[in-house]
Amino acid sequence: MVSFVPTPIGNLADITLRGLETLRSADLIACEDTRHSRKLLNHYEIEKPLVSLHDHNEARRVPEILRKASQGQHIAVISDAGTPCLSDPGHRLLRACIKEDVNYEVLPGPSAITTALVASGLPPLPFTFGGFLPYKKGKRERELQAALNRGHTSLYFESPHRLVSTLEILTNLNPLVHVSITKELTKKFENIYGGQTLKLLRTFTDRPPRGEFVLAIDPTSLSQ
Fold this sequence. Notes:
This protein is an alpha/beta fold. It is built from eight helices and ten strands.
């Protein structure tokens, strides 16, 4: 059995009882970063063998995990934060489980995507999640233009180092579109910013961004 277990996106208390039970019963835990995950496991006094599973070793690691699962071991898969497979490692392993007919389960739990969507107050359905915005400015601009053309809310993860640049691009495309920026969700310095793009550009230009951010864009605000 391979269990995909969501982990807290900031507040360690947000892990589910079922998630803890699964981690405690696993024979092996596959982590995006073993050092990072050790903090969560130590907090809940869970001592299990750990193995890394990330973008750079997933092709090599997947057959190893499938072999162990086929031999009757219970493997739990976690990412650094949130739900595996969504802008995090795990999708290749899950697809392999389906292909090789290996039993798997996906537990519900914390997700920055849905938390940010609800907290934004923007129209929740339908919505598009685009993962991390492209690093290159030209590709980022094309993706943001596509978000403005969709007619419904779009969400993205964005680096603090590029947030101001992204807001500058959005402002050039349309300074009046409403956006929401959620910062450090569930953590001590959580904050939610909302308003027209130009307003938020001024906010973050005066206050250099730090932390983890989710950007939500509502193009329907332009027709209201």
